[in-house]
Amino acid sequence: MSCAIYYQCYFNVKFSKPLDTLFDIDYQIVVEALAGHTQRECNLKPSEKLFNPRMKYLTKLIRVAIETISCVDNSEQSKVYNDGDCLKWIENITSLADLWVINSDFVKRQYVIGLYHMGYDSLAENMLVLINEPKSLLPPLLAITIQRLKKSLENTKNQPEWIVAIPPQVYKKIQNTLPDSSIPPCPSLSSTVLLLQKLLIQIDKKDSETIDQADVKTAKLLIESCEVLLRRNL
Q1: Residue 111 placed within a domain
Q2: Residue range of the domain that includes 222
Q3: How far apart are CA 111 and CA 2, in angstroms?
Q4: Which of 61, 81, 102 is the last residue of a domain?
Q5: Is the per-residue pLDDT at 132 higher than 80?
Q6: Average pLDDT of span 132-158
Q7: pTM above the 0.90 mark?
Q8: Which of 4, 22, 39, 182 has its CA 20 to 30 A from that of 232?
Q9: Could you tell me if residue 119 is inside a domain?
Q10: pLDDT at res. 13
Q11: Average pLDDT of 73-90?
Q12: Rounded CA gap, 171 and 149, in Å?
């Protein structure tokens, strides 16, 4: 409990009624403990109703931890990041997840999603081999990729040529997607391609029999679209 409240205060994370939503609290036990009566046994196993709020809270912590990353070298060929503080916080968040009996793979997945969302593609790419169920990453990363293509369309100097360069079904997805202002304004399509390709490789190794083939088809279409746009310098 002390770790959760400390992290919330340190990062100024907004989370309504954390004591009530993140913990099974018997306030009578708290009062007795403050009075020096510590004989009553406590059941430390959390109730199932706590898992969703706790996972939402961990996700918020992961997102603010990612905000501590800074870019040291912003060259397109080899971006270099200072992520030391972030890695320390991810380690702390993983320890909190363990205390809450939440699989550490959940933290890794949310970390990859957050990195990709913020444009730290090389860092996200390095994490892919550590994910036990990479198929669960595909839907959120596809959604972020659609947002990236939407940004690319907004930034291109030749929108008509950009639109006819990609498959109609991809353009329809872009049109039907509400813009997300938190996506970086100039996402890298080349690193987008690399990350999606490596994710598909990991899925083929670990989840090939259970993956939704419709998502795989969409991923390949998005990769193809990015490659065409890169070739045509759009």
Answers
A1: no
A2: 133-234
A3: 23
A4: 102
A5: yes
A6: 94
A7: no
A8: 182
A9: no
A10: 77
A11: 83
A12: 9
CB contact set of 193 (below 8 Å; sequence gap of 6+): 223, 226, 227, 230
Give dist(CA 158, CA 152) in Å, integer.
Answer: 11
Task: List, in sequence order, the alpha helices (H) in the chain.
Answer: 2-11, 18-22, 27-34, 51-66, 84-99, 104-117, 121-127, 138-155, 159-165, 168-175, 189-206, 213-231
Which DSSP category does 70 fall into? E
Same domain, 97 and 150: no
Q: Is residue 123 part of a domain?
A: no
* Selected residue with higher pLDDT from 44 and 60: 60
Last residue of a domain, one of 79, 102, 125: 102
Residue 122: strand, helix, or coil? helix
- Quote the number of domains for the chain: 2
Nearest to 183 by CA among 139, 151, 153, 143: 151
Per mean pLDDT, which range of 15-29, 30-44, 120-134 is the poorest?
30-44
Q: 12 with 66, same domain?
A: yes
Whether 193 and 151 share a structural domain: yes
Alpha carbon of residue 179 to chain centroid: 18
Position 212 scores a pLDDT of 79
